[in-house]
Amino acid sequence: MQEALVIVPKALLYETARAASVSDELLSGWMVGIQQHRGDFLEITTQYGYRGWVHASAVRLLRPEECCLWELGHLASQGTALGNSPVTSPSPPAVIRHPMIDVLDSPKVQAKALATLFMGSAVIPLGSQKEGWQKVRLADGQCGYLPSCMLLPPAEKEHTQDSLRRAILEYACSFLGTPYRWGGKTREGIDCSGLTFMSYYMCGILIYRDAVLAEGYPVHAIPFSRVKPADLLYFPGHVALFMGDGKYIHSTGDIRTFGCTVNSLDPKDPDYRADLAGCLKGAGSIF
User: Fold this and answer.
1) Active-site residue 192, yes or no?
2) How far apart are CA 68 and CA 88, in angstroms?
3) Candidates 74, 159, 203, 238; catalytic one
4) Is 250 annotated in the active site?
5) C-alpha torsion angle, residues 35, 139, 63, 77 (rounded to 10)
6) Has 74 been annotated as catalytic?
């Protein structure tokens, strides 16, 4: 299977080659596997098992020697949860940690923006940071600069369970106020499973990008009595992250909020959502 790299800030993944229905979004620097070519579209498989169609202009083919260069090292940081082998690339890509950031053509705030990348996008660091700026190469081949604090730092040690739960929820909360968008994964718009996926992805864990439990992924069913912060709550066609004290964070298409917000399972709480609390199907955890 030919490997390719997403070279645009955000590529839409469609259910069919007719580009009629969006199912997902792919970010710059993400690797995909090409299944077939049809007209202007490619059928691809993502690193997390999703399959669909992207416009051919959104990706470029990778030479064999480039594949290990673009493998994401942070996805090996939680090896036991992922079930993946450690990445052997000596200099793995760096991952954007801020919701959105401009990559500039020179290391100064007044410089021209070459591209605006979203949280989770990958870039290749070039040399060491200097005076707080890091030179990077983008997936499309351009080179530019961004503040080094905008990049996910290398993992110095394994997370404890408590610290990992906190980190997952911190990423989820960074999307608060983001409008709802079907298939979305960015600060421009995000859906329920996009929120849960990205919150775990930024902590080095690939979960299924949908509102159901799926075999072959690290989330397994648990009784609700065992739910802890950062575990997942499943409703019909919907998923949320539990925060504790009956509260949960989710991205909802409900017209009253239409976006990423916090609600509660407690009828005494002003943020109570009776429609969701009454149809809670189950819970899931990676722990």
Assistant:
1) yes
2) 8
3) 238
4) yes
5) -80
6) no
Marked catalytic residue, from 74, 192, 203, 260: 192
Q: Model confidence over 108-128: pLDDT tens digits?
A: 999 999 999 999 999 999 999
Q: In what order do the strands lie in the sheet with 247-252?
A: 220-222, 282-285, 232-235, 238-244, 247-252, 259-264
Exposure string of 238-271, with b = 16+ CB inside 10 Å and e = fewer, is: bbbbbbeebbbbbbbebeebebbbbbbbeeeeee
What is the tens place of the pLDDT at every residue in 227-279? 999 999 999 999 999 999 999 999 999 999 999 999 999 999 999 999 999 99
The span from the CA of 7 to the CA of 25, in Å, is 13
Tokens coding 66: 């480039």
Quick one: angle between helices 192-201 and 161-173, nearest 10? 130
Query: 287 Cβ partners below 8 Å, 6+ apart?
Result: 161, 228, 231
DSSP E strands in 188-237: the ranges are: 189-190, 220-222, 232-235
The tokens describing 247, both together, are 């509260």
Query: Which residues partner with 203 through β-bridges?
Result: none
Looking at 159, 203, 250, 260, which residue is catalytic? Answer: 250
